[in-house]
Amino acid sequence: MGASTDGAESLHPDIEQVLIGSAHIQARLREIAAEIDRDYAGRQVLLVGVLKGAFILMADLARSLTVPVEFDFMAVSSYGSATQTSGVVRILKDLDLDIAGRDVLVVEDIVDSGLTLNYLLRNLRARGPSSLEVMALLSKPDQTRVDLPIRYQGFAVPNVFVVGYGLDYAERYRNLSFVGTLRPEVYAQT
Ligand code: PRP
Q: Which of these, 85, 183, 182, lies nearest to 143 by C-alpha position?
């Protein structure tokens, strides 16, 4: 495994630039997992992954944790164009579990405008968890329109459209092990 510009990673034909390499992501996740282990020592964490983007992050983060964890998922959809959110959020799949009295940690791949997470946190808080925190792999500080309490943050990225490590463009590229930008020609084809 190489650094953020690992040669094998940049070979993907649709990728213009690797912003955060696979090894870098995994190292940061191990650091965050150690923090979570410390913060939740003696407690049981309920990880709530926000589909679809968080599925890869959730799997990797969880495998670095040693505190007891349970899993649940929500699927939400923001109305808007392919690359921009509108702030109106629709719940496509709700949680299976009752989170009242639970220590809930929401796992998000990216906080862009912050509107999706803002909506989700209000919704989940109303269900009476004993604690509610957020882990977000990526944030776009220049884009964020609401102030959000993100307890665990991976990386800040510039205001460019990114794919990989769960993030898609037209449902593709989620399975890339790194975060990167697409070549402009890829958008032109769709
Ligand atoms: C992405 C991401 C967040 C949201 C962030 O999801 O996973 O949920 O957008 O944007 P915001 O901060 O501007 O609200 P997306 O709607 O692309 O769905 P997906 O995870 O299924 O790809």
A: 85
